[in-house]
């Protein structure tokens, strides 16, 4: 009897240890910053984008058109329709509404084929980047993704004095970032999530 109780106690102890081990190996919750990025809305069409308009069973009005600088598109049956600031689904519904004057129950699909995005949502990189430029924001974009896109920083950059200017509740805020630690030392803790409209400023070193 004593042997059975001892064996049972050993099994319970082993089970508890296994549960603690699995609990310690569980994936930690995503940081709030990353959760906020994951909640971003769908991609909004912007000037300079190209959209492929597919009208089911009506190939004669199906075509790829650019979004003009004023944010509008023009097709043979749809003139000056606002596209910038809308998702592909929203634009498709608007095109269906316009085409319904000429086609019975049109079914439209819009596919964005060239991504530039709204100016207000672009990521701008200025200062001592190898290729300073404006980038289309992409879901879950990180600081490392931005640095890869601009070819890294120059030899004259003061990477650890770089800042991100971010609009928060209508007010600009400066967030310090550590580009040298991220790029040269591989410190992944310096890799932060980007937000639409962020401006990355990379200053020049004083020496």
UniProtKB/TrEMBL annotation:
SLBB domain: residues covered: 123-201
Membrane topology: Multi-pass membrane protein
PROSITE patterns: PROKAR_LIPOPROTEIN
Residues spanning the membrane: none
InterPro entries noted in UniProt: PEP-CTERM_polysacc_export, Poly_export, Poly_export_N, SLBB_dom
Sequence ranges assigned to domain Polysaccharide export protein N-terminal in this UniProt record: 38-112
Signal peptide (residue range): 1-32
Keyword vocabulary terms for this entry: Cell outer membrane, Ion transport, Lipoprotein, Membrane, Palmitate, Polysaccharide transport, Porin, Signal, Sugar transport, Transmembrane, Transmembrane beta strand, Transport
Compartment list: Cell outer membrane
Superkingdom to which the source organism belongs: Bacteria
Principal place of residence: membrane
Pfam families, A to Z: Poly_export, SLBB_2
Recorded family membership: Belongs to the BexD/CtrA/VexA family.
Name of the protein in its database record: Polysaccharide export protein
Organism annotation: Massilia solisilvae
